[in-house]
C-alpha cells in the first residue's frame, strides 16, 4: 500500500523515473489483487487521505466501492460516557471512507501500470544493496542491478531493506491479536463507525457498502484463539453482546483472519540516500485506523520534498522531510500505543478519568472538534 502510493506521489511531484520492487506477482489487475498488503482487511481512509487520493485523480474510483463515515461513535463497555463525532458538526461532507484493501489495491495498481515511467519489478526481491557515490547500487535476485539516488524501504514491519540501510527498530509485542472479518447487517449502518473499548481490548465496526461492516476485534492471543474456534452463530452472539445499545443487528459473518499486534518503530527515519516509510517506519495498533493514514501524510511530505529535487537523497533534504513529520508521527504513535493500555487499566482512578474523558469530549465541542480534525488528518 505504502510503496505503490509513494510511486504515484513521487511521479505527481516531479520524479522522472521510479522503480518499484515487490516480491509477490503484480500485473495490470483485471480483478482486485490479493497480496499481503492488499489483503482481506478494510482500511478507514481519513478525509486527508481521500484528498491526497483526489489530487492523484483516484478518489472517485475509490468511492465506487467505499462507504462514507458520517459519524464516529466512541464508547466503553458497561460504563457511562460516549462521544459522537459527526461530519455535519465538523462542517465536512464525510469524516472519511472505508474501503476493502483489495479494491484500494485495484485502483492503485491500475494507476501504477498506466504510468510508463514507473517500472514494476514483480515478483522480484532485493538480494543486496551497496553504497556508491551519490546513492545506492541495488542487486535484485533475478540478476538485475539498479542504481538509485534514493532507496525507499516500504517492505513492511519486518523490513529487510531497513536493516540493510543500518536502521534498527524497536518492537513491542502487545500480546494481543486483531481478529478481522466482514459482517452483514439486518438493516443499514447509516454511515456510523463504532469504536468500542471492551475489557479485553478495543473493537471497531466500520461501515462498508451493501449493508456490511468491517470488524476489527482485538484481545489477548488466547482469547482470540477462542473467538476463532467459535461457530459463526456463537461469535455473532458474542459480538452483538459487546456492541453498544443502538448498534445495528448483525446477521452473518464472513471468513475470520487474525493479525498479531506487534508495534514497530524505526529508530531513524532517514540516512543518506535512504528512507523508511509505511509499516517499515511505524507499525501502529489499529485502534483508531491511523496506520495507513499517518503513512500517507509521510508519503505526501516525502514526495513534495524529493519529487523534483536533483539530489533527492542528500541528508539535508531527507532531514528536512524527517523534521517536518516528526511531531505528527510521535503523537499518533504514542496515542495508538497508550490509548488501548489506558482503557485496559482496571484501577478506579483510570476508570474515572476515562469516563470523564469521554463525557468531556461529548459535552465540549471544541475538544471533540480538535480530536476529530486530528483523526481526519486535517
Ligand atoms: C487489522 C488491521 C487493520 C488496520 N486498519 C487500518 C485502518 O482502518 N486505517 C489505517 O489507516 N490503517 C489501518 N491499518 C494499518 C495498515 O494496514 C498499514 O498502515 C498498511 O498495511 C501499511 O502498509 P505497508 O505498505 O507499509 O506495508 P505492508 O502492507 O506490510 O507491505 C509491504 C510490502 O512489501 C513487500 N515485501 C516485503 N519484503 C520484500 C522484499 N524483500 N522485497 C520486495 N518486496 C517485499 C510485501 O510483499 C508487501 O507487499 C490496519 C492494520 C491492521 C493490522
Set down the secondary structure blueprint.
Elements: H1 2-12, E1 18-21, E2 42-46, H2 47-55, H3 59-64, E3 66-69, E4 71-76, E5 82-86, H4 87-90, E6 96-100, H5 101-114, E7 118-121, E8 126-132, E9 135-140, E10 145-148, E11 151-153, H6 160-164, E12 169-185, E13 192-197, E14 202-208, E15 212-220, H7 221-229, H8 232-242, E16 250-253, E17 257-266, E18 270-271, E19 274-276, E20 282-283, H9 291-306, H10 315-344, H11 348-363, H12 365-375
Parallel strand pairs: 1-7, 4-13, 11-19
Antiparallel strand pairs: 2-6, 3-6, 4-5, 8-9, 9-10, 12-15, 12-16, 12-17, 13-14, 14-15, 17-20, 18-19
The protein binds flavin-adenine dinucleotide.
Largest sheet: 9 strands, mixed
Structural class: alpha+beta
- Uncertain runs with pLDDT below 50, 5 residues or more? none
Mean pLDDT value: 89
Strand percentage lies at 25-35%
By DSSP (H or I, 4+ residues per run), the number of helices equals: 12
| Count of distinct strands | 20
Q: What is the overall shape?
A: globular
Instruction: Tell me the radius of gyration.
Output: 21 Å
Helix content: 25-40%
User: Which molecules are bound besides the chains?
Assistant: flavin-adenine dinucleotide
Q: First CA to last CA: what distance?
A: 21 Å
Keywords: FAD, Flavoprotein, Monooxygenase, Oxidoreductase
Organism: Alcanivorax borkumensis (strain ATCC 700651 / DSM 11573 / NCIMB 13689 / SK2)
Pathway: Cofactor biosynthesis; ubiquinone biosynthesis
GO biological process, one term: ubiquinone biosynthetic process
